Amino acid sequence: MATNLDNIQLTIIVGHFGSGKTEFSVNYAMKMQEAGHKVALADLDIINPYFRTREITDELEAKGIRVISSVLGNKESHPMDLPSLSPELNLLFQTDQYYGIVDVGGNPEGARALGRFSDGIKKTNYNMYMVVNANRPETETVETVLSFMRGIEEKSKLKISGFINNTHLVRDTSPEDILKGDKLVREVSEATNLPVMYTSYIKEMVDMSGYDLAGEKFPMTMLMRPEWL
Fold first, then answer.
1. Residue 187: how many CA atoms within 13 Å on its side-chain side?
2. Is residue 35 within a helix (H) or strand (E), and if so which, with residue range?
3. d(CA 176, CA 7)
């Protein structure tokens, strides 16, 4: 497991429902592609039926990002998800052909799917980041974040290497929400001796450029949520 970005082949994004992990994953994939990497984004979310990476496959692939889905076929021919993982996922773990990003289902049971690939992942240089939204009741305290973290690690058979503060209230997000999350992830970082890697936020909704925040500031564009939500 690596804790910095040097020679990283794979970044795994985990987090609770509503944490914003898929939004971060998609924006992160676009950032890495713009930086010159050949990116493959794997949708391993077999739990949550909403706001999944594969819903915007056409847009991502138009930008040169390969999308690997966890379901058989496509959403038109297979409207219901199946408990079947694409063999294409092995491309991320067995070669250095792509810079891989994996969006994982939003609870420890969702991370169980990731555990199927843990042996292959451990042979790569990887980071696994946990997205934290301090406005979610399941991750609003240090204790609940640590409990969620332990569950993810147990089911995935992998170790989290850093945290992302993505505290939000969707379109009602304020700087105070981001700062609330900043305080929480700093405390979690101190308790675990793991770094805060990013503070992410939707740049069209809030401007955090003037604030001192943990980790790298990561302004995002909202891509996953329809305009009417």
1. 16
2. none
3. 35
Q: CB count, 10 Å around CB of 207?
A: 11
CATH class of the 10-220 domain in this structure: alpha beta
Looking at per-residue pLDDT, the higher value among 118 and 199 belongs to: 199
Rounded CA-CA distance 40/11 in Å is 11
| Cα–Cα distance, 223 to 55 (Å, whole number) | 10
pLDDT of residue 78: 42
Backbone angles phi and psi of 15, in degrees to 5:
165, 165
Tokens representing residue 111 in the block: 């991370």
Do 185 and 200 touch, CB atoms closer than 8 A?
no
Q: Per DSSP, what are the bridge partners of residue 164? A: 131, 198
* 54 vs 62: CA distance, rounded Å: 13
- Amino acid at residue number 111: A
pTM over 0.85: yes
